[in-house]
Write a structure and sequence with these properties.
With 324 residues, the chain is an alpha/beta fold. It has a six-stranded mixed beta sheet with strand order 6-4-7-2-1-8, sandwiched between helices. A two-stranded antiparallel sheet has the order 3-5. The chain has 13 helices and eight strands. Strand 1 and strand 2 form a beta hairpin. 47% of the residues lie in helices and 10% in strands. The protein starts with 11 loop residues before the first helix and ends with a strand.
Length: 324
């Protein structure tokens, strides 16, 4: 179950108006004062620096600062939990300041893209006309249909061709002790928009779909059925995951993902490590151009092949920030 988780130039119109005003001697003093004020304001903005953030005393933080190696301003790295109870999502003052310090917010996907929903619908299905009935025995298929009808109250006909991993994601709300479910990315986007920050994506929906298509559908189908058969155990597992995430213990997060019973270890390169390397390549270019706030699943931060370690190997200074 764990795999699922600058200074702008003055507008030309203003410059034009100022030029026109200078033709009127009666307004000369007034315009002179206006120009002085604009020049003063521009200087203040141009000299504006990022608000410094407090360093955490240990490595137990989901919020990290990336600096050095030629960067003029810091970039921030934050580990998310893709789906949780809305009341559990609370952003610290330091995290909010980090978003405000950044020019753009980067998520795994550009979830602000108006075409995301349509593109997503087009990529949910398995390739080559494959259907779920092709992946199960008659008894297994009957159990799957029954679960979606009786427990999820959904017509199974809607999901006949869908990638099994996407159906696993639909089981998550059944594990939560609340009715109002949200995602950290969703709430983060709201705050970013409030602060007029552009949302960008580190990868496309096509790239994520390709990851799912690279894992045999038979294996995905097995994981889906296993998740249904182990729902009680999954609820406890989810509680453990959430508790470790809230504690911000990166070592604990890494330990969870290294447990054999969570399966799919043979696909970690596809799900985590290859994506991490690709993101670091992008970030080396992005961070040189502007400071950004990067929010990705917490599993991408940890371990020798995680983003924190990879960025350090590239020569950046990566430090934990207080996030309470």
């Amino acid at each position: 179950m764990l795999f699922l988780n600058k200074i702008t130039p003055l507008p030309l119109s203003i410059l034009y108006n100022l030029k026109m005003y200078l033709h009127f001697k009666n307004y000369f003093m007034k315009i002179s004062l206006s120009l002085l004020w604009i020049a003063f304001s521009y200087t203040i903005c141009a000299q504006q620096k990022q608000i410094p953030l407090l360093i955490n005393k240990d490595k137990n933080s989901l919020l990290w600062e990336v600096s050095g190696n030629g960067l003029t301003k810091s970039t921030y790295l934050f580990g998310t939990f893709h789906l949780m109870c809305k009341d559990d999502i609370n952003f610290s003052s330091q995290l909010k300041t980090a978003v405000q310090n950044a020019d753009k917010v980067y998520l795994e996907l550009d979830m602000d893209d108006p075409n995301m929903m349509l593109s997503g619908l087009m990529m949910m299905n398995m390739k080559n006309g494959k259907k779920l009935s092709d992946l199960y025995t008659a008894a297994e298929y009957s159990k799957l249909k029954g679960y979606f009808k009786d427990s999820l109250k959904m017509p199974f006909s809607l999901f006949e061709s869908m990638k099994p991993f996407l159906l696993v994601a639909m089981l998550y709300p059944k594990m939560m002790p609340c009715k109002t479910v949200s995602g950290i990315e969703e709430e983060l986007m709201k705050f970013a928009k409030l602060n007029k920050k552009e949302i960008k994506g580190l990868e496309t929906l096509q790239q994520q779909a390709a990851v799912f298509d690279s894992i045999p559908y038979k294996e995905q189908a097995k994981e889906l059925l296993k998740s249904i058969d182990s729902m009680k155990a999954n609820k406890k597992e989810f509680e453990t995951m959430l508790s470790v995430y809230k504690s911000q213990r990166l070592a604990g997060i890494e330990a969870l993902f290294n447990k054999n019973e969570f399966g799919l270890q043979e696909h970690e390169d596809l799900l985590l490590f290859n994506r991490n390397k690709n993101w670091v390549k992008q970030l080396k270019i992005i961070m040189q151009a502007e400071p950004v706030f990067v929010a990705v699943g917490a599993a991408h931060l940890v371990g020798n092949k995680g983003l924190i370690s990879l960025l350090k190997k590239e020569g950046y200074k990566v430090r934990p920030l207080m996030n309470k």
